[in-house]
Amino acid sequence: MQPLQVGVFTNSMRIDDPLAALAKAKELGLGVVQIGPLADEWYQGDAYQRIAACLQECGVVPSAICAAYPGESYADQDAVRGTVGLLPEAFLAERMALTKLVADLGANLGVPILTTHIGVMPEDPADPGHHRLVDAVQEIADYLAPKGMRFAMETGQETGPAMKEFLAAVGRDNVGVNFDPANMILYGTGDPIEALEVLRDHVLHVHCKDGEWPTVAGQLGTEVPLGAGAVGVERYLGKLKEIGYAGPLVIEREAGEDRLGDITRAKELLERLR
Ligand code: MG
Question: By CB distance 3.0 to 4.6 Å, which of 50, 224, 250, 258 could disulfide with 7?
Fold first, then answer.
């Protein structure tokens, strides 16, 4: 993989079949993918062999694999707090089990990084939810370590300093962040470039996504095509280079009706500015 090679989060293409998604990535000229959440069957038995063969055939490199969980809602900030990631206690056991299945698939495919939204971390370290999240992340990190894999937590549902404190509480060498600048804007958690400075030693992987700030309390901001929002793509890439980030630039697009067109235009923008 070349430094700052442009890739795509397979989920963003809205193609459920991972084999078709990989073929589409190749067709779009994207040689790197973050593998998105898949149907259960792909985590079972030797199903990975079909994905491995397809990666080989397409000449596409998997930079990361993402775990997401049934029952998550991103409708508004309360929904995110109540349903997303490893914070909701009622779902913790089943979600940890799924996370390990995704890790196993990643290991079988030689993927170096597992990513997920862990959920909204409670700011108070005495909150039981905070302990639960630290324990869960430590357990995932320790599951990944013998596989030679690292765990990258998606940023943006908390401030940069809060994430840095959380990383210190976790205290594992193979844990860092998947930095998503748009999330910080969508959740109203602060300037993403300032957060990138705070987290500069912990960036394992990044998303290239854009958004507008929320205008109604409790609601999320609006995701927009890369380059059309408040991130400032040139500034973002400049900061990534300044901190020495040399991993892939993975395009994520979670809204809009012309995903493939938006991804193609984002690729052109990133290749021009990187
Ligand atoms: Mg993201």
Answer: 250
DSSP of 256-269: SS-HHHHHHHHHHH
pLDDT tens digits, one per residue of 99-143: 999 999 999 999 999 999 999 999 888 999 999 999 999 999 999
* CB of 39 closer than 8 Å to CB of 16: yes
Could you tell me the distance, in angstroms and rounded to a whole number, from the CA of residue 153 to the centre of ligand 1? Answer: 10
Q: Which of 106, 109, 62, 107 is nearest to 205 (CA)?
A: 62
The predicted pLDDT at position 125 comes to: 87
Residue 116 CA, distance from chain mean position: 6
What spacing in Å lies between the alpha carbon of 55 and ligand 1's midpoint?
A: 22
Give 108 Cα–ligand 1 centroid separation in angstroms: 24
Query: What's the rounded Cα separation, in Å, for the pair 26 and 166?
Result: 37
Output the CA torsion sign for 44, 252, 220, 14: negative
Helices (H) and strands (E) in the chain, counts: 10, 10
Global pTM reads: 0.97
Residue of 155, 162, 200 lying closest to 182 (CA atoms): 155
Domain boundaries, the chain: 6-273
Residue 27 class from Cβ within 10 Å (0-12 exposed, 13-18 middle, 19+ buried)? exposed
**β strands within 17-126, DSSP E:** 32-35, 61-66, 113-116
Nearest-angstrom CA–CA distance, 185 and 77: 13
Residue (of 45, 20, 43) closest to 33 by Cα position: 20
- CA 125 and chain centroid, separation: 24
Q: Which residues of 207-240 are buried (b: 16+ CB within 10 A; e: fewer)?
A: bbbbbbebeeeeebbbbbbbbebbbbbeebbebb
At the top level of CATH, the class of 6-273 is alpha beta
